[in-house]
Amino acid sequence: MTILLDGKKLSAEIKLEIAAEVKQLIAAGKKVPHLAAVLVGNNGASETYVASKAKNCEEVGFMSSLIRLDEGISETALLGKIDELNSNADIDGFIVQLPLPKHIVVQKIMEAIDPKKDVDGFHPVNAGRLLQNLPCYIPATPYGIMIMLERYKIETAGKHCVIIGRSNIVGMPMSVLMSRNGYPGNCTVTLCHSKTNNLAEVVRSADIVIAALGSPKFVTVDMVKDGAVVIDVGITRIESKDTKSGFKICGDVDFENVAPKCSYISPVPGGVGLMTIVGLLKNTLNAASR
Fold first, then answer.
1. Which residue, 18, 78, 110, 152, has fewest beta-carbon neighbours within 10 Å?
2. Of 82, 116, 150, which residue sits at a domain end?
3. What is the mean pLDDT of each run of 10 residues along the chain (290 residues)?
4. Which residue range(s) make up the domain with 261?
5. C-alpha–C-alpha distance, residues 39 and 24, integer Å
6. Among the options 120, 207, 252, 254, which is catalytic?
7. Active site residue 9
8. How many domains does the chain have?
9. Is 81 considered catalytic here?
10. Model-level pTM greater than 0.85?
Protein backbone atom coordinates (compact mmCIF):
# COMPACT_ATOMS: atom_id res chain seq x y z
CA MET A 1 0.00 0.00 0.00
CA THR A 2 1.35 3.42 -1.00
CA ILE A 3 1.13 6.20 1.59
CA LEU A 4 0.90 9.75 0.29
CA LEU A 5 3.26 12.25 1.93
CA ASP A 6 0.59 14.93 2.18
CA GLY A 7 2.30 18.31 2.39
CA LYS A 8 -0.99 20.17 2.50
CA LYS A 9 -2.24 18.34 5.59
CA LEU A 10 1.12 18.31 7.38
CA SER A 11 1.93 21.95 6.69
CA ALA A 12 -1.48 22.98 8.06
CA GLU A 13 -0.81 21.04 11.28
CA ILE A 14 2.64 22.58 11.75
CA LYS A 15 1.39 26.11 11.05
CA LEU A 16 -1.09 25.68 13.90
CA GLU A 17 1.83 24.71 16.15
CA ILE A 18 3.82 27.76 15.02
CA ALA A 19 0.82 30.03 15.63
CA ALA A 20 0.54 28.67 19.18
CA GLU A 21 4.24 29.40 19.77
CA VAL A 22 3.78 32.97 18.50
CA LYS A 23 0.96 33.47 21.01
CA GLN A 24 3.28 32.26 23.77
CA LEU A 25 5.96 34.73 22.68
CA ILE A 26 3.45 37.59 22.76
CA ALA A 27 2.12 36.48 26.16
CA ALA A 28 5.69 36.55 27.48
CA GLY A 29 6.04 40.15 26.32
CA LYS A 30 8.31 39.35 23.38
CA LYS A 31 8.07 40.77 19.89
CA VAL A 32 6.04 39.32 17.03
CA PRO A 33 8.29 37.51 14.52
CA HIS A 34 8.87 39.65 11.44
CA LEU A 35 9.84 38.27 8.01
CA ALA A 36 10.74 40.57 5.13
CA ALA A 37 11.12 39.75 1.44
CA VAL A 38 13.02 41.71 -1.19
CA LEU A 39 11.54 41.44 -4.69
CA VAL A 40 13.49 42.88 -7.62
CA GLY A 41 11.42 43.32 -10.78
CA ASN A 42 8.05 41.69 -11.46
CA ASN A 43 8.77 38.05 -12.36
CA GLY A 44 5.40 36.26 -12.33
CA ALA A 45 6.56 33.17 -10.45
CA SER A 46 8.40 35.32 -7.89
CA GLU A 47 5.28 37.42 -7.35
CA THR A 48 3.33 34.23 -6.62
CA TYR A 49 5.93 32.88 -4.19
CA VAL A 50 6.23 36.16 -2.28
CA ALA A 51 2.44 36.52 -2.02
CA SER A 52 2.23 32.96 -0.67
CA LYS A 53 4.89 33.71 1.96
CA ALA A 54 3.01 36.83 3.08
CA LYS A 55 -0.25 34.88 3.33
CA ASN A 56 1.39 32.15 5.41
CA CYS A 57 2.98 34.73 7.72
CA GLU A 58 -0.46 36.19 8.36
CA GLU A 59 -1.87 32.73 9.12
CA VAL A 60 0.67 32.05 11.87
CA GLY A 61 0.63 35.56 13.35
CA PHE A 62 3.93 36.85 11.92
CA MET A 63 4.47 40.36 10.63
CA SER A 64 5.64 40.47 7.02
CA SER A 65 7.08 43.19 4.81
CA LEU A 66 7.65 43.31 1.07
CA ILE A 67 10.37 45.55 -0.33
CA ARG A 68 9.72 46.05 -4.04
CA LEU A 69 12.65 47.28 -6.12
CA ASP A 70 12.87 48.20 -9.79
CA GLU A 71 14.45 45.63 -12.11
CA GLY A 72 17.02 48.20 -13.17
CA ILE A 73 18.33 48.78 -9.64
CA SER A 74 22.11 48.77 -9.45
CA GLU A 75 23.97 46.09 -7.55
CA THR A 76 25.36 48.78 -5.23
CA ALA A 77 21.89 50.11 -4.44
CA LEU A 78 20.59 46.59 -3.72
CA LEU A 79 23.52 45.95 -1.39
CA GLY A 80 22.63 49.20 0.37
CA LYS A 81 19.05 48.00 0.88
CA ILE A 82 20.32 44.70 2.31
CA ASP A 83 22.55 46.64 4.71
CA GLU A 84 19.47 48.55 5.89
CA LEU A 85 17.61 45.30 6.58
CA ASN A 86 20.64 43.86 8.40
CA SER A 87 20.56 46.90 10.70
CA ASN A 88 16.79 46.95 11.25
CA ALA A 89 16.24 45.42 14.71
CA ASP A 90 12.52 44.95 14.07
CA ILE A 91 13.13 42.48 11.21
CA ASP A 92 14.12 39.02 12.45
CA GLY A 93 14.84 37.47 9.07
CA PHE A 94 14.61 38.31 5.40
CA ILE A 95 14.95 36.73 2.00
CA VAL A 96 16.01 38.07 -1.37
CA GLN A 97 13.72 36.42 -3.89
CA LEU A 98 15.47 34.71 -6.77
CA PRO A 99 16.01 34.99 -9.71
CA LEU A 100 17.70 38.39 -9.79
CA PRO A 101 18.37 40.46 -12.94
CA LYS A 102 21.42 39.34 -14.92
CA HIS A 103 23.49 42.42 -14.07
CA ILE A 104 23.47 41.48 -10.37
CA VAL A 105 25.83 38.82 -9.01
CA VAL A 106 23.65 36.53 -6.90
CA GLN A 107 26.47 35.20 -4.71
CA LYS A 108 27.54 38.73 -3.76
CA ILE A 109 23.98 39.48 -2.65
CA MET A 110 23.65 36.26 -0.65
CA GLU A 111 26.94 36.89 1.14
CA ALA A 112 25.84 40.42 2.09
CA ILE A 113 22.94 39.11 4.19
CA ASP A 114 23.64 38.92 7.92
CA PRO A 115 23.91 35.15 8.65
CA LYS A 116 21.75 35.70 11.75
CA LYS A 117 18.93 36.94 9.48
CA ASP A 118 19.56 34.48 6.64
CA VAL A 119 16.35 32.48 7.08
CA ASP A 120 16.75 31.04 3.57
CA GLY A 121 19.93 29.33 4.81
CA PHE A 122 22.02 30.26 1.74
CA HIS A 123 24.85 32.22 3.38
CA PRO A 124 28.24 30.42 3.39
CA VAL A 125 28.35 30.74 7.19
CA ASN A 126 25.11 28.78 7.53
CA ALA A 127 26.24 26.30 4.87
CA GLY A 128 29.50 25.74 6.76
CA ARG A 129 27.76 25.31 10.09
CA LEU A 130 25.38 22.82 8.50
CA LEU A 131 28.36 20.82 7.25
CA GLN A 132 29.80 20.71 10.78
CA ASN A 133 26.42 19.84 12.33
CA LEU A 134 26.28 23.11 14.27
CA PRO A 135 23.15 25.20 14.94
CA CYS A 136 22.25 27.08 11.78
CA TYR A 137 19.46 28.00 9.41
CA ILE A 138 18.83 25.00 7.15
CA PRO A 139 17.70 25.88 3.59
CA ALA A 140 13.92 25.87 3.63
CA THR A 141 13.26 23.02 1.18
CA PRO A 142 15.66 20.50 2.80
CA TYR A 143 14.33 21.57 6.22
CA GLY A 144 10.77 20.90 5.06
CA ILE A 145 11.75 17.48 3.70
CA MET A 146 13.43 16.54 6.97
CA ILE A 147 10.31 17.54 8.91
CA MET A 148 8.18 15.47 6.52
CA LEU A 149 10.36 12.37 6.99
CA GLU A 150 10.27 12.80 10.76
CA ARG A 151 6.53 13.40 11.05
CA TYR A 152 5.73 10.38 8.87
CA LYS A 153 8.20 8.31 10.95
CA ILE A 154 10.06 7.08 7.87
CA GLU A 155 13.02 4.88 8.78
CA THR A 156 16.28 6.31 7.46
CA ALA A 157 19.11 4.69 9.44
CA GLY A 158 21.15 2.30 7.29
CA LYS A 159 19.10 3.08 4.18
CA HIS A 160 20.55 3.97 0.78
CA CYS A 161 19.42 7.48 -0.15
CA VAL A 162 19.90 8.60 -3.74
CA ILE A 163 19.61 12.34 -4.41
CA ILE A 164 19.25 13.49 -8.01
CA GLY A 165 20.52 17.05 -8.40
CA ARG A 166 23.41 18.83 -6.69
CA SER A 167 22.22 22.41 -6.26
CA ASN A 168 23.24 24.43 -3.21
CA ILE A 169 19.54 24.99 -2.52
CA VAL A 170 18.43 21.33 -2.29
CA GLY A 171 20.75 18.54 -3.42
CA MET A 172 23.97 19.42 -1.60
CA PRO A 173 22.41 20.27 1.77
CA MET A 174 20.13 17.21 1.56
CA SER A 175 23.19 14.99 1.09
CA VAL A 176 24.66 16.37 4.32
CA LEU A 177 21.42 16.12 6.28
CA MET A 178 20.65 12.55 5.22
CA SER A 179 24.15 11.33 6.04
CA ARG A 180 24.61 13.01 9.43
CA ASN A 181 24.37 11.13 12.71
CA GLY A 182 20.78 11.73 13.80
CA TYR A 183 17.18 11.26 12.81
CA PRO A 184 16.29 11.68 10.04
CA GLY A 185 19.73 10.70 8.83
CA ASN A 186 22.33 7.94 9.12
CA CYS A 187 21.81 7.06 5.46
CA THR A 188 24.41 5.99 2.96
CA VAL A 189 24.04 8.79 0.43
CA THR A 190 24.69 8.84 -3.31
CA LEU A 191 24.50 12.28 -4.92
CA CYS A 192 23.71 12.01 -8.65
CA HIS A 193 23.99 14.65 -11.36
CA SER A 194 24.32 15.12 -15.12
CA LYS A 195 27.71 13.35 -15.22
CA THR A 196 26.60 10.27 -13.25
CA ASN A 197 27.14 7.05 -15.19
CA ASN A 198 24.33 4.46 -15.21
CA LEU A 199 22.05 6.87 -13.36
CA ALA A 200 18.92 4.72 -13.73
CA GLU A 201 20.76 1.75 -12.22
CA VAL A 202 21.97 3.86 -9.29
CA VAL A 203 18.49 5.22 -8.58
CA ARG A 204 17.05 1.70 -8.78
CA SER A 205 19.26 0.68 -5.84
CA ALA A 206 17.80 3.39 -3.58
CA ASP A 207 15.61 2.87 -0.53
CA ILE A 208 14.94 6.63 -0.54
CA VAL A 209 14.91 8.74 -3.72
CA ILE A 210 14.97 12.55 -3.56
CA ALA A 211 14.46 14.02 -7.03
CA ALA A 212 15.51 17.67 -7.30
CA LEU A 213 16.66 18.39 -10.84
CA GLY A 214 13.78 20.33 -12.41
CA SER A 215 13.07 17.92 -15.26
CA PRO A 216 9.40 16.90 -15.58
CA LYS A 217 8.69 13.18 -15.12
CA PHE A 218 12.42 12.36 -15.24
CA VAL A 219 12.09 9.52 -12.71
CA THR A 220 10.18 6.72 -14.43
CA VAL A 221 8.72 3.50 -13.09
CA ASP A 222 11.68 1.38 -14.24
CA MET A 223 14.04 3.52 -12.12
CA VAL A 224 12.36 2.81 -8.78
CA LYS A 225 12.47 -0.41 -6.81
CA ASP A 226 9.46 -1.85 -5.01
CA GLY A 227 8.84 -0.28 -1.62
CA ALA A 228 11.04 2.78 -2.15
CA VAL A 229 10.32 6.15 -0.54
CA VAL A 230 10.17 8.86 -3.21
CA ILE A 231 10.40 12.58 -2.46
CA ASP A 232 9.62 14.79 -5.47
CA VAL A 233 11.08 18.29 -5.20
CA GLY A 234 10.58 19.33 -8.84
CA ILE A 235 8.16 22.11 -9.77
CA THR A 236 7.96 22.81 -13.51
CA ARG A 237 5.21 24.54 -15.49
CA ILE A 238 4.20 22.54 -18.55
CA GLU A 239 1.54 23.28 -21.14
CA SER A 240 -1.84 21.64 -20.59
CA LYS A 241 -5.12 21.71 -22.49
CA ASP A 242 -6.94 20.51 -19.37
CA THR A 243 -6.55 23.74 -17.35
CA LYS A 244 -7.94 27.24 -17.80
CA SER A 245 -4.48 28.76 -17.41
CA GLY A 246 -3.07 26.60 -20.22
CA PHE A 247 -0.43 25.02 -18.00
CA LYS A 248 -0.07 22.73 -15.00
CA ILE A 249 2.60 22.05 -12.39
CA CYS A 250 4.61 18.88 -12.91
CA GLY A 251 7.18 17.20 -10.67
CA ASP A 252 10.39 15.35 -11.47
CA VAL A 253 8.66 11.99 -10.93
CA ASP A 254 6.18 10.26 -13.22
CA PHE A 255 3.80 10.11 -10.28
CA GLU A 256 0.93 8.16 -11.87
CA ASN A 257 3.13 5.22 -12.83
CA VAL A 258 5.72 5.36 -10.04
CA ALA A 259 3.35 5.73 -7.05
CA PRO A 260 2.02 2.13 -7.05
CA LYS A 261 5.56 0.80 -6.51
CA CYS A 262 6.34 3.05 -3.54
CA SER A 263 5.86 2.69 0.20
CA TYR A 264 5.69 6.51 0.46
CA ILE A 265 5.62 9.21 -2.21
CA SER A 266 5.13 13.00 -2.21
CA PRO A 267 2.82 14.53 -4.84
CA VAL A 268 3.34 17.67 -6.94
CA PRO A 269 1.64 19.94 -6.19
CA GLY A 270 0.67 19.37 -2.56
CA GLY A 271 3.95 17.96 -1.29
CA VAL A 272 7.40 19.45 -0.75
CA GLY A 273 6.46 22.94 -1.96
CA LEU A 274 4.16 23.50 1.01
CA MET A 275 6.76 22.08 3.37
CA THR A 276 9.30 24.60 2.04
CA ILE A 277 7.10 27.39 3.39
CA VAL A 278 7.02 25.59 6.75
CA GLY A 279 10.82 25.46 6.78
CA LEU A 280 11.00 29.21 6.15
CA LEU A 281 8.45 29.95 8.89
CA LYS A 282 10.29 27.78 11.42
CA ASN A 283 13.61 29.47 10.59
CA THR A 284 11.97 32.87 11.11
CA LEU A 285 10.46 31.74 14.42
CA ASN A 286 13.89 30.56 15.54
CA ALA A 287 15.39 33.90 14.53
CA ALA A 288 12.80 35.77 16.57
CA SER A 289 13.24 33.47 19.57
CA ARG A 290 16.98 34.12 19.60
1. 152
2. 116
3. 96 98 95 97 86 95 97 97 98 96 96 98 97 96 98 98 97 98 98 96 98 96 98 88 80 98 97 97 94
4. 140-273
5. 31
6. 120
7. no
8. 2
9. no
10. yes
